[in-house]
Amino acid sequence: MIRLATAEDRAAIVEFCRATWGPGTEDYIERVIDRWIAGVDGALAVVDLGGRAVACCYVRFMSPREAFLAGMRVDPAHRRAGFSLALTEYCLRHAASHRRSVARTIIGWNNSPALGAIARAGFNRVGSMTLWERSTEDPPAPPDVAAESAQPSPHPSPGELWAVGWAVRELTDEDIRERTESGWAVRRDGGVALLRPGEDHVWLGWLAGPAAARAWLARAAVRVATNAGSPRCRALLAGDAATAQALEAAGFTRGLEYLIYERSTR
Ligand SMILES: CC(C)(COP(=O)(O)OP(=O)(O)OC[C@H]1O[C@@H](n2cnc3c(N)ncnc32)[C@H](O)[C@@H]1OP(=O)(O)O)[C@@H](O)C(=O)NCCC(=O)NCCS
Asked: Are residues 42 and 156 in the same domain?
């Protein structure tokens, strides 16, 4: 049976997520599970086998029309039983019943079980993003992060996606305004960087504009993270060679490439 999770499922979920990425690794589920069970911005669905949760998936509401599937996990003892497919269907129905018309997810390029499962669930690949990370120790030469310029900043192209932590959704001018008003946008010479504080890092979720501006902004993002007292700056960005060069020059290390998948909820 598939149902929404309750606080009683917490221990079982944490237990079967213990070794998701192999012995000695950490799964972020334990850090977010209380928010997910509380359903702050979505709903956590579980497969219940004889009263015990053996699989979970969080359907997160990203905007009035968009949903994102996060944290799909199946107990290693119960894999290849169709649970991820069944959970995906349940989460898509839940999203549709809350008027979300599109659902997305991101999956590491090398995670073949998950890539197989998402294709079977009818999702299409629509793009990719690369994870970049940099410690804030020894930050790059300090650009003045308060500097603004009179040049107009770039607009997102229609349907362009940006990273909101570990999730993606469409970027709008309203998002850029909101980031600016909350003090988490940096501009320079026709470029803009959108930032967001995370748990132990600051996220760089969108970097756009002329190549020279992006190079400056990548360094500025690290300074912002340093000034915010974060040990790390992380970026999850779609991008071209200029973005990669900007991040490398600012001392970021390239991490995994994540493929973005999308499906209508109907
Ligand atoms: C990926 C994962 C969620 C799949 O869960 P599952 O319940 O075993 O998957 P299902 O039984 O629903 O499989 C559905 C389809 O996915 C594909 N698939 C699943 N596991 C696979 C594997 N190990 N190798 C290749 N294809 C696989 C198959 O096409 C499968 O259909 P089939 O069994 O009829 O051939 C599970 O392996 C898991 O929890 N992995 C660790 C966490 C993870 O990677 N989460 C997703 C990334 S965010």
From this structure: no
